[in-house]
Amino acid sequence: MKAGGTSKSIFYRNFPPVIQALGIGVLAVLVMLVTKWFDTGQPGSWQDEWTVVIAFLLFFSVTNCVFFLGSNNQSQYFNRSIIAYTGLALGLLLIAFALTQISFFESGIFRWMLVVVSLVYLILLGIVQAVYRIMRYAQKQDKKLRNEE
């Protein structure tokens, strides 16, 4: 599973985590601005922007783990993924605060949702990395059995 091979699949292309985070961040900001534009002014309408933050962090988590399999250097990709996720989370939290004037610590359930999504991301990234290593080891053993090495 090398990135950039002859395969045309999007899953085998090299998408650095920082580029993924920037793309998803821009999309999240656009969605937050649209939700702010359609804001009804009702009490609790600030929750829409915080929901967008959590949803896009979860979206980044899943897409980043999928593109992890197509990377050439998994340990470097892992480190950059963690940094990109942290930057994306901090950026989206600051933008949500600027749009809603509700701090992260006053956001109630969204504070715990962020903790859960972050932990799920770390666990999922670890599982994908372990599966990749097991798969690579199995392919290596298969080549040994076939005397192709």
Key features of this structure:
149 residues, 4 helices
Tell me the layout of helices and strands:
Layout: H1 17-37, H2 47-68, H3 74-100, H4 109-145
In short:
With about 150 residues, this protein is mainly alpha-helical. The protein is about 70% helix and about 0% strand.
Indicate the radius of gyration in whole angstroms: 19 Å
Number of domains: 1
Shape: elongated
Main beta sheet: none
The count of DSSP E runs of length 2 or more, i.e. the number of strands, is 0
- Supply the helix-strand structural class: mainly alpha
| C-alpha termini separation | 17 Å
Query: How much β-strand is present in the residues?
Result: under 5%
**Helical residue percent band:** over 70%
Element order, helices and strands?
Answer: HHHH
Total of helices: 4
> Spans with pLDDT under 50 lasting ≥5 residues?
none
- Mean residue pLDDT: 86
Description:
With 149 residues, the protein is mainly α. It has one domain. 72% of the residues lie in helices and 0% in strands. It has 4 helices and no strands. Helix 1 packs antiparallel against helix 2 (47-68), helix 1 (17-37) runs parallel beside helix 3 and helix 2 runs parallel beside helix 4 (109-145). The mean pLDDT is 86.
